[in-house]
What we know:
The protein is α/β, with parallel strands linked by helices. It contains 8 helices and 7 strands; from the N terminus they run ααβααβααββαββαβ. The radius of gyration is 18 Å and the shape is globular.
Amino acid sequence: MPRSTPRWGSLAQAAGALERWLLPGECLLCREPAGGSDPLICPTCQSRWASLPEPQCARCGQPLTPGTACRLCVGWEAGLSGVRSAVWLDDSARRAVHLLKYSGWKRVAQPLATVIAARVGIATGSALVPIPLGAARLRKRGYNQSAELAAALGIRLGLDLADVLARRRETTTQTALTPDARRANLAGAFEAGRRAPERCVLVDDVFTTGATLEEAARALLAAGAGQVSGVTFARAQRPLDAAATHDPDP
């Protein structure tokens, strides 16, 4: 059964209030005085993140030139569909991801999740499944940024968090790997520790080629999932007529 998304109680609220009091009242991105209730990323910076244009591929969410077919998701795992990203990975969105992923600001997942919830439709009754980290990276980082993002998103949408995936093995960094090399790097990397929910939505921070989501979907389908889709905060930009480019991992 999916694990229910934790609810913030009085202790969490008190901790959040203390954190806001201790933090400088400025946005981590623009360094201007923070507005709204969250001092980490101001509403102005959030509003500047660019949504992906239409039309988009119905399967992988890649923006398309009208009248052209998508080549990005050709050859994907048959059971993976409906992948969507909230914003382009421009410089501002990339800095936000770096804060979450590498700088210890795990609460940055909250404004990122707010943007996902506002810009990407996720079906009621879906279970959110975070992409897992390998054990070594999890120890080094102290938390899984995708799990933080999934938990924050679940709170906003009232969806359960199903932490059913694990890494079977460590994988090398995907930076500078070609799409085919990414697939080879991730082959067999995930497994489900128990039966997967019927309707799963994979959650990750950035979509680059889709190789991570594809391999994770394969593990969920093998564990009994009937439908697997995916959502990410950002999507790495590439020429709209190119099937794949060597986008760097953030």
